[in-house]
Amino acid sequence: MNRWFGTLRILAIIALVSLAAQARAQDQSIVVASTTSTQDSGLFGYLLPIVKQKTGVEVKVLAQGTGQALDTARRGDADVVFVHAKSAEEKFLAEGFGVKRYPVMYNDFVIVGPKEDPAGIKGKDVVTALQTIKSKAAPFISRGDRSGTHIAEIKLWKEAGTDIAKDHGPWYKEIGQGMGAALNMASASNAYVLSDRGTWLAFQNLGDLSILVEGDKRLFNQYGVMLVNPAKHPAVKREAGQRFIDWLISLEGQNVIAGYKVNGQQLLYPDANDPNA
Amino acid sequence: MNDFAQALDTAASLIGHFDPELRQIVGLSLGVSLTASLSAFAIGAPLGTALAIYRIRGRAALIVIANALLGLPPVVVGLAVYLLLSRSGPLGSLGILFTPTAMVIAQAILGIPIVIALVHRIMVDVWASYGDALLVDGASRLRATWPLMAIGRDGLLTAFLAAFGRAIAEVGAIIIVGGNIRGYTRTMTTAIALETSKGELSFALALGIILVILSMTVSALSFLLGRVLTGR
């Protein structure tokens, strides 16, 4: 009996010691609060080993929605935020939580839906497409999670003349989950959904879905990166975080981003040099 | 049915290759869940035993609470631990949010009520059968604890395995406090959640099959180890 407890105790000590050792080894690592789209599209899987090799910074990614990522950073639980909702990012800066916003890259949103397109939106501009979906009460999946994509969706509905949060029927389903989950649901229930192109291209469970609306300039999707303000949260790893940001917007980093392809298609377009992005 | 066949096939080839990332994920899952369930056991077993043999004030209430907490929702525990460990929270200076340590803490909290409730139930019976004899032998209640636990060891093992089972299967708490960071806090369950969200359904199911095999293996091994060490 004593032996039994002795073994347990030794196992517990070994486990705790190894965890402590792991904790010490994380000095050159930063936590980046980012979006589900950057992870689900496979960008980080491609990018981070290169970042580690070029800058020595090990990046730990929290794939959250833009709203949640900014909240995580507001609490001081991340060193860098890498998200895609310019208005929310500017609010974050104005509150003093960010040091400076750098544009990094863009891609675009697409409206995805069943191939048979029961509402008949294929090829229309995005405003007409949304108005058609609403007037025909065709099933539509909304992220509903304050993510960058959700914020963009609400803005697009507004341009289509609808305050969608207040004015919708049971055809409009807010699921409060990530992009992949929204695409899974759309695929399972033959619904329409707004997706970033990156996640869509990398997504595997297509079912009967295909792209129906694209190429409208209102569907533009800009990504930005910010260091969390060390003046607000002294634990922020300022040096390693800034090194990561500097590399992303360097010529080398921008070229690496441009080189990311899924099924031969370029996913993201670097634009760190565009002051208006 | 095709999905399941494909998942089985993927699972077999994953186990066959046993690639480094999978190895790391499996290692972390086992490490976190074992540490958490051992910690829960180390804290819960003495408490459960004490509740069985000491007539302390409020004992009935404590027992009711421990049993009521069996249904503690992981997502709530995750959120509470998150707020405690956040840089803006009371324990923020420790800097352990989004680390395996935070995951161990969350899972240990989930395991403790299970261990207390199960150990209490076992020890009540053991105490009823052997308590008087031990006291007559001149042992104090405190001294009697050790022989009592030795007598009830099979039940104690079950309590430990129940806590481990809860930990290894759990996703709601660790995805909040660990953050599902690749190569660092990604476990089997959070990886399954992620692959599902990426639409890689059969790959997710393949990971699920491996998780079930893993969990059954650990439970069987603990059970056998318990038998060997206790000489039965």
Question: Class by helix and strand content of chain B?
Answer: mainly alpha
Shape, principal axes of CA atoms of chain B: globular
Please report the two chains with the greatest interface, counting residues with C-beta closer than 8 angstroms to the partner's C-beta: A-B, 43 and 41 residues
Beta fraction of the residues of chain B? under 5%
CATH fold title of the largest domain in chain A: D-Maltodextrin-Binding Protein, domain 2
**In terms of quaternary structure, what is this?**
heterodimer
CATH class of chain B: Mainly Alpha
Q: Whole-number radius of gyration of chain A?
A: 21 Å
Description:
The complex is a heterodimer of chains A (277) and B (232). Chain A is α/β, with parallel strands linked by helices and 277 residues long. Chain A folds into 2 domains: 26-105 and 222-270, Periplasmic binding protein-like II (D-Maltodextrin-Binding Protein, domain 2); 108-219, Periplasmic binding protein-like II (D-Maltodextrin-Binding Protein, domain 2). Helices cover 43% and strands 24% of the residues of chain A. Chain A is built from 11 helices and 12 strands. Chain A has helices at residues 2-24, 36-40, 43-55, 66-74, 86-94, 126-135, 148-159, 179-189, 197-202, 238-249, 251-258, and strands at residues 29-35, 58-64, 80-83, 98-114, 140-142, 172-174, 192-196, 209-213, 220-228, 261-262, 265-266, 269-270. In chain A, strands 1, 2, 3, 4, 5, 6, 7, 8, 9 and 12 form a 10-stranded mixed beta sheet that branches. In chain A, strand 5 (140-142), helix 7 and strand 6 (172-174) form a beta-alpha-beta unit. The mean pLDDT of chain A is 91. Chain B is mainly alpha-helical. The radius of gyration of chain B is 20 Å and the shape is globular. Chain B has helices spanning 2-17, 20-53, 59-68, 74-85, 100-136, 141-151, 153-168, 172-178, 188-197, 201-229. The N and C termini of chain B lie far apart (43 Å). Chain B is built from 10 helices and no strands. The mean pLDDT of chain B is 91. In chain B, helix 2 (20-53) runs parallel beside helix 5 (100-136), helix 2 (20-53) crosses helix 7 (153-168) and helix 4 packs parallel to helix 8 (172-178). Chain B has one domain: MetI-like fold, CATH 1.10.3720.10. Chain A binds chain B through residues 1, 3-4, 7-8, 11-12, 15-16, 18-19, 22-23, 26, 31, 36, 39-40, 44-45, 48, 60-63, 75-77, 177-181, 183-184, 187, 202-206, 233, 235, and chain B through 31, 34-35, 38-39, 41-42, 86-89, 92-93, 95-101, 104, 146, 149-150, 153, 179-182, 184-185, 194, 196-201, 226, 229-230.
